[in-house]
Specification:
The chain has about 220 residues and is α+β, with helices and mostly antiparallel strands. The chain contains nine helices and four strands. The chain has a four-stranded mixed β-sheet. The chain is globular and about 50 Å long. It comes from Roseivivax marinus.
Length: about 220
């Protein structure tokens, strides 16, 4: 079986990221790749999750992005891709290698992912609602509760703003999405977390480098 590092460093092997500039999960991957010094190895290819002819559905049967292609290997979702990038970079840079500390980091990163997931579902409620159908207020309230509870945890204990790791990368991508799509007005009720994002952006150029440049 071909080793991951052999594939990654083989100049004949294409490494392609299927995503968009506006996906918070794709942004996570692009941010991590830049922080780990791996961005130059990755080609970017737009994906359209609603296009039935898009090859994304063959690469990831769920039809979701991001999807990282390493030669014939397809790796998804964003959490798995970040684990892979950390491994390629030597391991232990985005999360501890082992022990309880590792699982604490993984859990907090999944909480941050959950904020982005719920925010996306709030946006999708309007995007996929049939014309004339009533707004799904119960659904929106259900997702809003997830966002607000997750934000409250990070308001109480934000990660260090000067360290770009699995938690801070994931959280900053989620908050960046909230700032853009505005499914909830999160900054007024979470001033400590708002300051954290501003400080993280100042300390981590990759945050601004990966911001969307299109609507």
């Amino acid at each position: 079986m071909t080793d991951l590092h052999d594939l990654w460093h083989d100049p004949g092997t294409r490494v392609v990221l299927r995503s968009t500039e506006t996906s918070p999960f794709g942004r996570k991957v692009r941010m991590a790749a830049e922080i780990l010094g791996l961005a130059g190895r990755i080609e970017r290819q737009a994906a359209d999750t609603l296009d039935t002819s898009d090859t994304l559905r063959a690469q990831n049967p769920l039809g979701k992005m991001p999807c990282l292609l390493i030669g014939e290997e397809a790796v998804f979702d964003s959490a798995v891709i970040l684990e892979l990038l950390d491994a390629v970079a030597g391991g232990g840079r985005l999360a501890p290698r082992a022990g309880l500390a590792r699982f604490r980091v993984l859990t907090r990163a999944r909480l941050a992912d959950g904020i982005a997931d719920a925010a996306l579902l709030m946006v999708y409620e309007g995007r996929f609602r049939q014309e004339g159908a009533p707004v799904g207020e119960r659904w929106l309230a259900h997702q809003r509760g997830k966002v607000e509870r997750g934000l409250s945890v990070f308001e109480t204990s934000p990660p260090p703003a000067d360290r770009a790791d699995l938690v801070s990368i994931t959280l900053s991508a989620a908050l960046g999405y909230l700032d853009w799509r505005e499914p909830v007005a999160w900054r007024p009720g979470h001033p400590r977390l708002a300051r954290w994002l501003d400080d993280f952006a100042a300390a981590t150029p990759a945050f601004e480098h990966t911001a969307r440049s299109v609507a």
